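@here heads up, posting the sequence + SMILES for the zinc ion run so it's all in one place. Ping me if the SMILES looks off, I pulled it from an old spreadsheet.
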Amino acid sequence: MYFVCLTFDFDAYSPWIYRKMHDYSNLSRGEFADVGVKRIIDLLKKESIPATFFIPGHTAEHFQETVSLIIDEGHEIANHGYMHEPPNELKSREEEFIIIKKGIETIQRLFNVRTVGYRSPSWNLSKNTIEILENLGFIYDSSLMSNDYLPYRPPKYIIIDNEGRVNKGPKSNIIELPVSWSLDDYPHFEYVRYPNFIQQGLRSVSEVFENWSLDFEYLVRNLKEGIFVITMHPEVIGRGHRMILLQKLINFIKFHEKRKETEFSSMIDVVNHYRDKLL
Ligand SMILES: [Zn+2]
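bot reply: prediction finished. Complex structure tokens:
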């Protein structure tokens, strides 16, 4: 079976606040995520597709009605830190533990949902992250890139010694659903003026459709089974022309000759499928 996971990181205000770029205009860009989520929910409903939304605790607090709507529509919600803190930028293991736990507790308090999946903000894990996820009872992570189409169990840590030798810990209990920058809408599309550089983005949807559809094509032509994880952001994919890209991609997959072997799925459903197979 080929599993297609449409995943959405509902970042809203949080990355702008974390990066101290929270002027009025950038906050309005964050607010557009709320408009985008509603368009996405409508499309997913029309197409009967389940999806996964990674939600920072801060977004859960500030967009409660929208998060309730996501849950009511039957989509999975998962952990994305509290204020979109990349783990590798945090000072200590303890700080990282507290932040991820705060993300869990915020969602649990507001929506009575215990999140079991984690995606690190900016896909920057620290050497402690995987063990922290294990300790906090997470089942899966979706931030790493050691494979593309196949889930795996990542090592508990990777440490580089003074000579540059790579030391890997034992396999963890976490299941990794790998990601890729090429299958993420943000670098392709979003124009951002950071203090020290400009992220150009603003590529045409036809270029990105070509890349994404060919990645799916390669999977179904060359592997007997696998997963196809796309990472999107409501404030990015939610723009008109990009929503049409998403519709076009869904149609491409739904009408593909391999459609009978293909299933749109939430991340947790994929994990449940692979759980006993990945020892
Ligand atoms: Zn994010």
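MO: DSSP finds eleven helices and twelve strands in the chain.
MO: One more: The longest helix spans residues 24-47.
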